[in-house]
Amino acid sequence: MGTPQDQRDWIISTLMPYRDKILGMVTGNHEARIYNDVGLDISKDIAEALKVPYRSEGILLKIMFGDGNNHVKDKPYVYWCYMTHGYGGARTSSAKAIKVERTSSWIHADFYIMSHDHVVNAAPVVYLYPDKRAHIDPDTGFMTGKIVAQRKMLIKSNSYVKWGGYAERGGFSPNDLECPIIHLAGEGRPRVRVEI
What we know:
The chain is α/β, with parallel strands linked by helices.
């Protein structure tokens, strides 16, 4: 493993060829320990070296691509992603999943990515919001409109830690080392699908 400096340098050299594909970066609890001990934000150093957006607590990303959203020429598809490392010491699958669901209740996005809990899962949640288009009902005089269903994907990403050592000592069960793959449809109505 080497020193934190060795690990930092290895991460930078390993990710440098892929930096154009990295949309953003947050810090994790292990890196935060270094900051708390000596005041060095190693995640910020890595992000600056790779020239990728960074916010330690969490980051809201606007992802735009393609053409023809809502059948309008030159209008790109837009997706919002909120990602954060995560927090806490949950042990059950439901307690781990509820943390990303809780996060989705205070910030709007199409999908949410949270790690920290050494587990992989994805769950769609549908919420309703009022459509901005409305009209005055001639009989009542009230503004009327529609309710629109919006799908959010709640994603727990992996820790990529094999069982034994840290994970075993911490009382974590063996986990699946698969990585969630997020598909942004970019056709018809914008839709997020996750494959594990």
